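Technical annex, item 7. During the second reporting period the consortium partners agreed on a shared format for inverse folding records so that results from different sites could be compared directly. Each record opens with the tokenized structure and is followed by the designed sequence. A conforming record, contributed by the partner at site C, is shown below for reference.
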């Protein structure tokens, strides 16, 4: 029997390609240690949601570093790109919101995979429920990083693209590792003073849910204006993601790794899986 598609999935900060030694330095619980294991785990999750997904929202930093050359495809990620293409071919709308590690997409993902690319936070309405989605880096004009600003300049992008991929990708991964280590101390949430909270409170349109990534720290609060403000925990170690069921109006965050260990698949539906969810619908 054909299963009805009614769910929208949200995930961020997978950091495909990050090396084992960098993960160990994070001093966090490690579930998917090696890049290949992380990619395989992410593909398993994509396959698990494929039966009931209406849409998938990739909220940035899916790749630890992504740069598209005119005639060269970045090495690796074949399984992920193939699975995303299969989702698109099967009718799932896949949206990619650029993060600070993977913002340099110049058409390949759109043309070859069929992904919808978003360059900044945007409001999307799902069954009458309004979501404001984005990665979370750069809101309120806070790009804040000199090298990222340079990489965003078209003339300097052309200069970087002229570097042989062997050296260009190596430089990019070194920058990405340095940037991640530098940001560890900033992966905290300061409530009312946080730039993401200010962005949500000053957002000019009525919104039911704000959903971001970037901080690597799960956040679930209700803003004074009544909107739900959610920051997804990173997928890199814990496998956190969120889902919204258009049929029931239920929105929740789920720890994929715990579900796999306890239930054997990545999409919890049974009563026993509910304690793993952080309910967010009042």
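Designed sequence (site C submission):
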């Amino acid at each position: 029997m054909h299963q009805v598609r009614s769910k929208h999935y949200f995930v961020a900060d997978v950091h495909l390609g990050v090396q084992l030694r960098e993960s160990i330095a994070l001093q966090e619980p490690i579930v998917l240690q090696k890049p290949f294991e992380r990619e395989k785990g992410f593909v398993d999750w994509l396959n698990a949601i494929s039966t009931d997904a209406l849409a998938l929202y990739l909220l940035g930093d899916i790749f630890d570093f992504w740069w598209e050359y005119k005639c060269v495809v970045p090495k690796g990620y074949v399984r992920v790109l193939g699975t995303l293409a299969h989702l698109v071919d099967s009718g799932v709308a896949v949206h990619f919101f650029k993060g600070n590690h993977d913002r340099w997409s110049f058409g390949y993902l759109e043309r070859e995979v069929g992904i919808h690319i978003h360059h900044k936070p945007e409001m999307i309405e799902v069954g009458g429920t309004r979501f404001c989605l984005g990665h979370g880096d750069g809101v309120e004009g806070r790009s804040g990083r000199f090298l990222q600003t340079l990489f965003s300049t078209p003339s300097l992008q052309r200069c970087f693209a002229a570097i042989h991929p062997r050296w260009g990708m190596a430089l990019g991964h070194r920058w990405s590792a340095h940037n991640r280590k530098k940001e560890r101390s900033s992966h905290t949430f300061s409530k009312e003073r946080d730039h993401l909270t200010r962005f949500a409170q000053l957002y000019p349109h009525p919104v039911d849910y704000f959903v971001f990534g970037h901080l690597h720290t799960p956040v679930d609060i209700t803003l004074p204006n009544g909107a739900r403000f959610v920051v997804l925990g990173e997928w890199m170690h814990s496998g956190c993601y969120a889902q919204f069921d258009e049929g029931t109006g239920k929105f929740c965050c789920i720890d994929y790794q715990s579900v796999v260990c306890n239930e054997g698949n990545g999409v919890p539906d049974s009563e026993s899986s509910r304690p793993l969810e952080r309910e967010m619908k009042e």
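The chain has one domain: 7-279. The first strand starts at residue 7 and ends at 11. All partners now use this format for quarterly exchanges.
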